[in-house]
Design brief:
alpha+beta; 5 strands; 3 helices; YaeB-like fold; globular
Length: 95
């Protein structure tokens, strides 16, 4: 089983949710930790990053992460709705 490491951007986005929503997000993270290849792999500048999609209150959310098989760690990058998600993620990862 993998362990999770949340990066600062993910943590700040996660804190904006209510506790019940945070619980649902934690369940989605558990799914990822159990099977890191569950998310959709990205190409181009986001190569290596996977995106897991799920719904909260009928709203689609995307969770970007990268799994490191050697270290058995899943790095959680970002959590947001689809609008400008990939552009913002690309800018964040370029830093």
């Amino acid at each position: 089983m993998y362990s999770a490491k949340a990066l600062p951007r993910f943590e700040s986005q996660f804190k904006k949710f209510h506790s019940k929503e945070q619980d649902q997000i934690r369940e989605e993270i558990k799914k990822i930790l159990g099977e890191p290849s569950t998310g959709e792999p990205k190409k181009g500048p986001l190569a290596g990053v996977r995106v897991h999609k799920f719904k909260i209150h009928h709203q689609l959310y995307l969770l970007a992460y990268e799994a490191s098989p050697k270290e058995k760690i899943v790095y959680l990058y970002a959590l947001a709705t689809h609008e400008n998600f990939y552009k913002a993620l690309e800018r964040y990862l370029d830093k």
